[in-house]
Amino acid sequence: MTRFFSIILLGAVALLSSPALAAPPLKLVVFDLELDDFSAGGPLAGESAEETERLRKMTRLARELLAASGLFEIVDAGATDEARVAQHWLRKCNGCDADVARAAGADLSFVGLFRKISVMEQVLEFRIRDARSGELVNISQTDLRGETDESWRRALTYLIRYNLVEPELARRGGKTER
């Protein structure tokens, strides 16, 4: 029994001393996800109530997944007076998100958008910027089919895992699972 607890203790010490866990989490502002609608009639009709709710759900999921990774500390930028944040126009502001993130005390900004080409064809894109320099440090995207909670959730989960979390773990020397 003592041997069992010794093995558990050694495993816990090894895990806690791993380089991936030793590095402090990066402070990340995750702005509300946006919809960039190129579908026929979409720009005229505007965002539907269903799309607005889906964007809220996906924003919440993105924040939860990134925080749960242990690599990122989510910083709230909700108190900003930047109109483009409130109006969900960060995708078109040419890097103003870095200024907002820096003012909030973050290291990085995260702008995500669903680009709707049609009901069946969409793209999810993330843009991560260094808050100090404004330089893009990560641009990731994936295509998705169908305008459903499930298709958006799968695309979001895929991009966060394979284009943000696992590469950051690998950079820090931690293990990744495929």
Name its key features.
signal, disordered N terminus, Rossmann fold, 7 helices, 178 residues, globular, alpha/beta, 44% helix, DUF2380 domain-containing protein, DUF3280, six-stranded mixed sheet, 24% strand, 6 strands
Structure description:
It comes from Methylosinus trichosporium (strain ATCC 35070 / NCIMB 11131 / UNIQEM 75 / OB3b). This protein has 178 residues and is an alpha/beta fold. It has a single domain (24-172), classed as 3-Layer(aba) Sandwich (Rossmann fold), CATH 3.40.50. 44% of the residues lie in helices and 24% in strands. The protein has helices at 2-16, 19-22, 42-45, 49-68, 83-86, 96-103, 149-172, and strands at residues 26-30, 34-37, 72-75, 108-116, 121-130, 136-145. Strands 1, 2, 3, 4, 5 and 6 form a 6-stranded mixed beta sheet that branches. A hairpin with a 5-residue loop joins strand 5 (121-130) and strand 6 (136-145). Helix 4 (49-68) packs parallel to helix 7.
Q: Would you summarize the structure shown here?
A:
With 178 residues, the chain is α/β, with parallel strands linked by helices. Helix content is 44%, strand content 24%.
